[in-house]
Amino acid sequence: MPIELPTLSQSSLQDYNDCPRRFELRYLQRLAYPAIETEPALENEKHQREGESFHRLAQQYFIGIPAEQIAKTANSDNLARWWGNFVNSKDLTGLRDLSGLRTEVTLSAPLGSYRLVAKYDLIASDSKKFYIYDWKTYRKRPKNEFLAIRWQTRVYRALLTQAGAFLNGGKPIAPEQIEMIYWFSDFPNDPARFPYAADQFKRDWDALTRFAEEIKNASSYPKTEDANRCLYCPYRSYCNRGIRAGDALDAELETEAEELFDINFEQVGEIEF
């Protein structure tokens, strides 16, 4: 029998949106990955590890460790290039002068029968606005239109509106105060910026509520009708959708693995039930 799913995240919502069957296998049955996700496998695995390392470098910078000291740990060509792009970005390095900086912060809020949870790379604020920063080590620069409809963009802004008052002296954060920025380590001068508005928040939260209810009441989890998605899915052998893995450059724009992290809800910013 599938186990209870207590939380929803941008990753699990995206999986359910893209393929309910993958959602079932990954989050309800929690099956191990039987297939190679992308080709070439070793190169892609190395790139993913480097991406995780870059996130740690950025976190260290924003908690006050000197950039020169951090640079010594950028021990691969990719990491050295990404770090160079980072420290040469005045927009990013200038953020450390702001008083309101939260790195690797997790927010949570009730969503129907679930908790909606998100872990943010960086939330920065000044006297007027809150800026959500998300670091991407994509090898292709995705189109803004693609990012705008992704659940990450919608969840991160909506959840900050819904559960971010503790970052604002106890006052609710208005949608118009929020902007989300994707910063691409290989495209440092071309970030994707997404401001927010009250009508967008209402649309997003209503959609999230409907989605949570649909997931709660689901009695079956059909496979996606778009078989191209299966090229990047590690569960494709369960569905007899082929054995050949998709190209890593395309896969990273289509699927992002769920970030696994332990949640101490006593330390998570949230609104009350």
Q: At the third CATH level, what is the topology name of the domain at 7-43 and 102-216 and 225-259?
A: Lambda Exonuclease, Chain A
Q: What's the total helix number?
A: 10
Shape: globular
**What's the number of extended β-strand segments?**
9
Q: Calculate Rg over CA atoms.
A: 19 Å
Protein structure class: alpha/beta
The helical percent reads 25-40%
Order of helices and strands: EHHEHHHHEEEHHEEHEHE
Strand content: 15-25%
Largest sheet: 7 strands, mixed
Distance between the termini: 28 Å
Nearest-integer average pLDDT: 86
Q: Detail the poorly predicted runs.
A: 257-267, 269-273
CATH arch. level architecture of the domain at 7-43 and 102-216 and 225-259: Alpha-Beta Complex
The CATH class of the domain at 7-43 and 102-216 and 225-259: Alpha Beta
Architecture overview:
It is a single chain. The chain has 273 residues and is of the alpha/beta class. It has a domain at 7-43 and 102-216 and 225-259: Lambda Exonuclease, Chain A (Alpha-Beta Complex). Helices cover 38% and strands 20% of the residues. The chain has helices at 10-18, 20-28, 41-62, 67-71, 77-87, 90-93, 144-148, 151-163, 198-217, 248-254, and strands spanning 7-8, 38-39, 100-111, 114-125, 130-136, 178-184, 187-195, 246-247, 269-270. A hairpin with a 4-residue loop joins strand 4 (114-125) and strand 5 (130-136). Helix 1 (10-18) runs antiparallel to helix 8 (151-163). The two termini are 28 Å apart. The relative contact order is 0.20.
